[in-house]
């Protein structure tokens, strides 16, 4: 069976209706719907439509606060810490980004961390937000389940702990790095399982150190860090910045939200906004980025390499293709969403 295609507007509206029916206020449901549809649009299929049912399951189990009081609990001129009050992570990080951008306008930089947040989708969603204000964005997060042991160990005490950096350009598309500190994010493992596909060798190993390629057996092993022990170290540092610094969960405190729908996850995240104008002329900076991007792209290639890509270029191309052709959803996922829509008494996704 081929994947079905839907428009951005269809998916966004479907998510808004689902979230509203589940009890989110309309304004909050609109934010969640927009951000989840954007995740799907940019090709982050492990964080878009595939997350609707797990979020709904957690909401129904009482594991999320549907009307949180998201507030600043620590603050200085260039920083703040948000208490997310166990609300949807998308709401917490949208507010964190807004505060970081405002602080950067006044201080040149703005750093906002969060605690008592929840899963918020792909890191690049939030790193990209400052770019609309001629700022560089950086985002860090503690993953919502531990899938990585310390280097040489077996106890899974660290997560995929993603980092994203978004740098504006002029005529070129922005440079956007979005990566887990593991070879693959766990959301990609879920997406492979949803599509009935095997994982490449190198994503996971079992507890005997042998390659694990069946995503349906993912719980029998663990993800591999990028760059060996260096990736383990990076995961730890990201977790310290996004989790420990904010009083959020790290190590054995992290709740596996794949199996526990009721415990408060106390997810930690952080976003940094850097105002380009604080460092000089914005146009000149963007022109220098353009020049560097073109130099890298035009540099000599190895045999059989058709093109040198910059971070974020393929996601940018994916976004344009999805805007033009619609977003592809696996038939099995669409069937599950249609069944859920029937249960909620709302129109099916394809009918929007």
What does this structure look like?
With 352 residues, the protein is an alpha+beta fold. The chain has a single domain, classed as Ribosomal Protein S8, Chain: A, domain 1, CATH 3.30.1370.60. 37% of the residues lie in helices and 17% in strands. It has a 7-stranded mixed sheet. It has a 3-stranded antiparallel sheet with strand order 9-8-10, with no helix packed on it. Strands 1-12 form a two-stranded antiparallel ribbon. Helix 4 (89-107) links the parallel strand 3 (79-83) and strand 4. It is globular and about 55 Å long. 47% of the residues are buried. The model has no long low-confidence stretch (mean pLDDT 95).
Uncertain regions: pLDDT < 50 for 5+ in a row?
A: none
Question: How are helices and strands ordered from N to C?
Answer: EHHHEEHEHEEEHEEEHEHHEH
Question: What is the overall pLDDT average?
Answer: 95
CATH topology: Ribosomal Protein S8, Chain: A, domain 1
Indicate the multimeric state.
Answer: single chain
Strands across the major sheet, in which order?
Answer: 2-3-4-11-5-6-7
Strand content: 15-25%
Estimate percent helicity: 25-40%
Largest sheet: 7 strands, mixed
What overall geometry do the principal axes of the alpha carbons give? globular
Keywords, please?
Ribosomal Protein S8, Chain: A, domain 1; 3-stranded antiparallel β-sheet; 7-stranded mixed β-sheet; 352 residues
Quick rundown:
By secondary structure, the chain is of the alpha+beta class. The protein contains 10 helices and 12 strands. It is globular and about 55 Å long.
């Amino acid at each position: 069976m081929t994947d079905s295609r839907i428009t951005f507007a269809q998916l966004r509206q479907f998510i808004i209706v689902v979230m509203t029916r589940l009890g989110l206020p309309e304004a909050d449901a609109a934010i969640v719907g927009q951000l989840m549809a954007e995740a799907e649009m940019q090709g982050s299929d492990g964080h878009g439509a595939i997350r609707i049912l797990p979020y709904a399951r957690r909401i129904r189990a009482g594991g999320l606060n549907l009307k949180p009081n998201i507030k600043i609990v620590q603050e200085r001129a260039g920083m703040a810490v948000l208490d997310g009050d166990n609300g949807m992570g998308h709401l917490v990080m949208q507010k964190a980004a807004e505060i970081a951008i405002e602080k950067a306008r006044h201080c040149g930089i703005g750093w906002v961390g969060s605690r008592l947040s929840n899963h918020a989708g792909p890191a690049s969603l939030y790193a990209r937000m400052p770019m609309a204000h001629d700022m560089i964005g950086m985002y860090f997060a503690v993953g919502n389940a531990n899938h990585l042991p310390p280097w040489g160990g077996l106890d899974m005490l660290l997560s995929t702990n993603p980092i994203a950096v978004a740098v504006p350009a002029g005529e070129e598309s922005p440079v956007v790095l979005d990566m887990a500190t593991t070879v693959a994010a766990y959301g990609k493992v879920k997406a492979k399982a949803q599509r009935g596909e095997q994982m490449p060798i190198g994503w996971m190993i079992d507890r005997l150190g042998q390659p694990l390629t069946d995503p349906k057996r993912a719980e029998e092993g663990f993800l591999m860090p990028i760059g060996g022990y260096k990736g383990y170290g990076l995961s730890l540092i990201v977790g310290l910045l996004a989790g420990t610094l904010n009083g959020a969960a790290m190590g054995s405190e992290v709740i596996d939200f794949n199996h526990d729908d009721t415990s408060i996850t106390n997810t930690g995240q952080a976003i940094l906004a850097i105002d380009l104008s604080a460092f000089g002329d914005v146009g000149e900076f963007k022109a220098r980025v353009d020049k560097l991007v073109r130099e890298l792209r035009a540099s000599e290639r190895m045999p059989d390499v058709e093109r040198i890509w910059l971070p974020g270029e393929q996601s940018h191309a994916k976004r344009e293709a999805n805007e033009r052709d619609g977003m592809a959803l696996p038939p099995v996922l669409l069937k599950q969403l249609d069944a859920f829509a029937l249960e909620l008494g709302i129109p099916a996704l394809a009918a929007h």
